[in-house]
């Protein structure tokens, strides 16, 4: 209970005040979300190296003091933007997998898929699922740039974040292919290799589309075809 001395303090009276129907925690969450959205715009358009805290704040329409209530520095924001891009792509990927599984799925992943995708459906499933992943990047050049280019080689800390995401994708592949059956070491390695192949092919596709690139950009449908063949072959020989 406030004392008589603090009850009249304006800072005390306004600390928990609601504005626009939102309490302070909700307003901070909104500002954080706005900064992540602005970070996607700035990092995904101008690049991380050219970005500044001020440019992100200007894009978000916020002062810099609000930046530091949610993020310690630009790199901290880059991780949040990258994680948001990964979550977006993962949600699209899982949605595409839904019809191929006799399983309960929610936004956290596959909850109960004891056998994984049936072998006879692997080719169609691989095409639908990979197309959803690729479209999540190809339909928004900002997400593609952040996920494929801007996070690479920034710092050891961000490399660990990127590797965590790669292994998260590999776990998803194993879950789709095998359900709840424990994978072998070879199967884990194969799933990481598949993720690496898809990511590198998408990097090549993205970079080839840049104005200063001397590498021809292959049609995304051809990239998809190759990835589907890789997944089908790996499923038949290693993952099943």
Q: Kindly report the average pLDDT value.
A: 89
State the end-to-end distance. 64 Å
CATH fold naming of the largest domain: Tetracycline Repressor, domain 2
* Fraction in beta strands: under 5%
Radius of gyration: 22 Å
Characterize the main sheet: 2 strands, antiparallel
Number of helices, counting only DSSP H or I runs of 4 residues or more = 11
Strand order of the largest sheet: 1-2
Morphology? globular
Give the H and E element order. HHHHHHEEHHHHH
Q: What share of residues is helical?
A: 55-70%
Structural class from helices and strands? mainly alpha
**CATH architecture assignment of the largest domain:** Orthogonal Bundle
Any low-confidence stretches, pLDDT <50, length ≥5? 1-15
Number of domains: 2
InterPro entries: Homeodomain-like_sf (IPR009057), HTH-type_TetR-like_transc_reg (IPR050109), HTH_TetR (IPR001647)
Keywords: DNA-binding
GO molecular function: DNA-binding transcription factor activity; transcription cis-regulatory region binding
Protein name: Putative TetR family transcriptional regulator
Describe the protein.
This protein is mostly helical. The chain folds into two domains: 24-71, Orthogonal Bundle (Arc Repressor Mutant, subunit A); 81-239, Tetracycline Repressor, domain 2 (Orthogonal Bundle). The protein contains eleven helices and two strands, in the order ααααααββααααα. It has a two-stranded antiparallel sheet. β1 (104-106) and β2 (109-112) form a beta hairpin.
């Amino acid at each position: 209970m406030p004392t008589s001395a603090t009850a009249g303090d304006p800072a005390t009276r306004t600390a928990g005040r609601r504005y626009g129907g939102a309490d302070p925690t909700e307003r901070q969450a909104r500002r954080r979300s706005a900064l992540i959205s602005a970070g996607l715009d700035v990092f995904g358009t101008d690049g991380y190296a050219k970005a500044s805290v001020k440019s992100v704040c200007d894009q978000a329409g916020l002062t810099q003091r609000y930046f530091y209530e949610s993020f310690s520095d630009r790199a901290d924001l880059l991780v949040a933007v990258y994680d948001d891009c990964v979550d977006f792509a993962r949600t699209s990927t899982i949605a595409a997998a839904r019809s191929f599984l006799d399983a309960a799925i929610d936004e956290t992943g596959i909850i109960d898929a004891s056998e994984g995708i049936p072998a006879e459906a692997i080719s169609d499933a691989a095409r639908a699922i990979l197309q959803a992943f690729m479209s999540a990047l190809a339909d928004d050049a900002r997400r593609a740039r952040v996920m494929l280019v801007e996070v690479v080689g920034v710092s050891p800390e961000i490399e660990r974040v990127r590797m965590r995401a790669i292994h998260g994708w590999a776990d998803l592949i194993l879950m789709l292919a095998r359900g709840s059956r424990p994978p072998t070491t070879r199967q884990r390695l194969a799933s990481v290799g598949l993720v690496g192949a898809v990511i590198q092919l998408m990097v090549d596709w993205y970079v080839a589309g840049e104005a200063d690139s001397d590498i021809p950009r292959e049609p995304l449908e051809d990239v998809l075809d190759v990835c589907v063949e890789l997944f089908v072959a790996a499923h038949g020989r290693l993952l099943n």
